[in-house]
Design goal:
two-stranded antiparallel ribbon
Length: about 300
């Protein structure tokens, strides 16, 4: 159910990416370690990206790739800009008064902040799952059908197929197939989060952004979401922000470590310290600050 990139504008066409995947051997991190990192073409690329809220530079100079069908984790202490960077990837920061982005964020080579680019189209290709489950106050069926209906799908048979496929993709179909008319708000917290994931994939994005999707869930529900991420990565590119380093080690192929640095004027800015495959970040990081955070010496 992977999306084929269409145009983000009415004029500019983005070519379909050719998968150049080749598995890189890895020893893994032991029991429970995340999947092996894969050398794959970047779906998205951040180049010297800074995010401002008014005159305040919240994040400074971030450069990293987001690779095809890989899970990229963003870790670091509170206030280091992880979620700010995540929201920049599908222009959610546009909804914040005074927010602006410098540098370049490209999707299949196209600058998503280009003057001709429609942010609604950006979010159609690059979906988001938020920290707190946020089902619409509608039935389970209507939660999933909402996006496709906005995109012009009217036939009931087609909507039925999309709803079943999305709920199956989110590992929720067997649990709710007999109560699709029930309110999504009646589900448990973990089920609500999977419903939100299903709602996201129902519009067939290529990239899924997850902002601490398990922080409000118990360990059992967290385990189900983590297992789901493994399956979703077969068809989607995933970026996850998490405070849980064990979770990053378990689920991600690549990890980026952020921290907050204080400049000469005493102002804190989020900075990317290190980006590499997850095995290396957690076993042999290249920066002392990364090792200090991973081992609990600061943060």
């Amino acid at each position: 159910m992977t999306a084929t990139p269409d145009s983000l504008t009415h004029e500019v066409k983005v070519s379909t990416m050719t998968d150049k995947t080749s598995v890189r051997p890895t020893a893994g991190l032991g029991a429970g370690a995340g999947p092996a990192a894969v050398e794959a073409e970047a779906v998205m690329q951040l180049e010297d990206v800074s995010v401002f809220y008014g005159d305040f530079e919240a994040v400074r100079g971030v450069s990293l790739p987001i690779r095809h069908n890989q899970i990229t984790a963003m870790i670091g202490p509170s206030g280091c800009g992880k979620s700010t960077v995540l929201r920049a990837l599908n222009r959610m920061n546009d909804l914040v008064t005074g927010a602006r982005v410098s540098g370049r964020i490209t999707y299949h080579g196209q600058d998503i902040y280009g003057s001709a680019v429609d942010p609604i189209q950006v979010r159609r290709h690059i979906g988001m799952v938020f920290q707190k489950p946020n089902p619409f106050p509608k039935s389970i069926y209507d939660n999933i059908a909402y996006g496709p209906r906005l995109n012009g799908v009217k036939r009931r048979s087609e909507l039925d197929s999309i709803v079943e496929e999305a709920l199956t993709g989110a590992a929720l179909w067997d649990e709710v197939k007999d109560k699709l008319k029930t309110s999504g708000l009646a589900l448990s917290g973990g089920q609500q989060q999977r419903l939100c994931i299903a709602r996201t994939i129902a519009v067939n994005p290529e990239v899924i952004l997850m902002d601490e999707p398990c922080s409000a869930l118990d360990p059992i529900a967290t385990g189900k979401i983590e297992e789901l991420m493994f399956h979703l990565a077969e068809n989607y590119t995933i970026v996850i922000v998490t405070h849980n380093m064990q979770q990053a080690a378990r689920v991600s192929h690549y990890t980026s470590f952020f921290t907050a640095e204080v400049d000469d004027a005493g102002v804190r800015h989020g900075r990317l310290v290190e980006f590499d495959d997850t095995q290396k970040i957690f076993t042999n990081p290249g920066e002392q600050r990364t090792e200090d955070y991973i081992t609990g010496r600061f943060g």
